[in-house]
Amino acid sequence: MTAAGDLKDLERRDWAARSGAWDKWSDALAKLAERMNAPLVEAAALSPGLRVLDLASGAGEPALQIARAVGPSGRVVATDLVEDMLSGARRRAAAIQLNQVEFQAADMEALPFPDAGFDRVTCRFGIMFAPDTRRALSEAHRVLKPGGRAVYLVWSEIQRNTMFQVIDAAVRKQLGSSPLDRETSPFRFADGTLPGRMTAAGFAQVSERVIGWSPEIESGQPFWRPQLDMIFGDRLADLDAASRTALDQRVQQGFARYLKGSRYFLTAETRLIVGTKPG
Ligand SMILES: C[S@@+](CC[C@H](N)C(=O)[O-])C[C@H]1O[C@@H](n2cnc3c(N)ncnc32)[C@H](O)[C@@H]1O
After folding, report:
1. Cα of 259 to ligand 1 centre, how many Å?
2. H helices within 118-161, ranges in order?
3. Residues 20-71: pLDDT tens digits?
4. What distance in angstroms lies between residue 179's CA and the mean position of ligand 1's atoms?
């Protein structure tokens, strides 16, 4: 087991190295992101004027969508452990003159905010990367107002998420290891333990919902490129051109079994966990 402090350093280093790819692909993925955000945004029960803290905001999902939902009278504080990860979010907010969102580097395990200042805390695909989950959840609880709500979206098992599964298998073959092996892996809470941890941190009415869908993707384009760059790109930077081509071929071969006619039929699954700070 890696010590929590060392894990944090590894996360900080890796996300900083990936930040350019997240900014680069964020606009192209915006429509897909909106669909994935929808259940989270709905569970957050947003209304104009609310103050929302979004954790691990990366290139702005779901912070920017939430900012639109709370309107000019609301406020969204979009945070991330890695300042560079917020570059894309800042750029995208400025492009649409979304003024009710602000950006701040912040570790979700030690939030630089006073107690009870937010109506909602949201976090899409972030909680798994904080080594000390207990601290992260108790910090979210602390900064929420009584009656406020926290909403987390996490990945289900890798076997239910074809995109990750195929790319991970190809990277593993090529490099002999994968960043997904770490304790702080994207699939850490696929085991359904996050609701119990939220209850232990003081949240009430905690619920978890599994959300599955079946992406269908037209063939003829390297549709996996964004995920390959955004999750594994830092590990691939040193590959020579021949190894990179070999990796692309492995990925393409991995997806071949999901191709029927002119379309790839994939599966994807997430878990949405919601809890309330007792009033
Ligand atoms: C998979 S990305 C998710 C970004 C965005 N929420 C999305 O769904 O597109 C994970 C993010 O978690 C951030 N992160 C990792 N550890 C963190 C921590 N302890 N506190 C805050 N953010 C963290 C990373 O820097 C990265 O931006």
Report:
1. 32
2. 133-143
3. 999 999 999 999 999 999 999 999 999 999 999 999 999 999 999 999 999 9
4. 15
Q: How far is the CA of 80 from the centre of ligand 1 (A)?
A: 6
Superfamily grouping for domain 4-157+189-216+268-276: Vaccinia Virus protein VP39 (3.40.50.150)
Protein residue with least CA distance to atom 8, ligand 1 = 124
Calpha distance 184→130 (Å, rounded)? 7
End-to-end CA distance of the chain: 38
Q: Which of 31, 32, 57 to mutate to test the pocket of ligand 1 (most atoms within 8 A of CB)?
A: 57
Cα gap 219→261, rounded to integer Å: 9
Cα 43 from Cα 74, distance rounded (Å): 18
Segments in 150-193 forming alpha helices (H): 162-175
Nearest CA to ligand 1 atom 4: 58
Please name the helix (run of DSSP H) or strand (run of DSSP E) that holds residue 205, with its range, or none.
strand 204-213
The tens digit of pLDDT for each residue in 230-270 reads: 999 998 988 999 999 999 999 999 999 999 999 999 999 99
- Rounded distance from Cα 219 to ligand 1 centre (Å): 30
Domain ranges of the chain: 4-157+189-216+268-276
Compute CA distances 229 → 18, 144, 189, 224, whole Å. 8, 35, 23, 9
- Confirm if 129 and 184 have CB atoms less than 8 A apart: yes
* DSSP state at residue 128: G
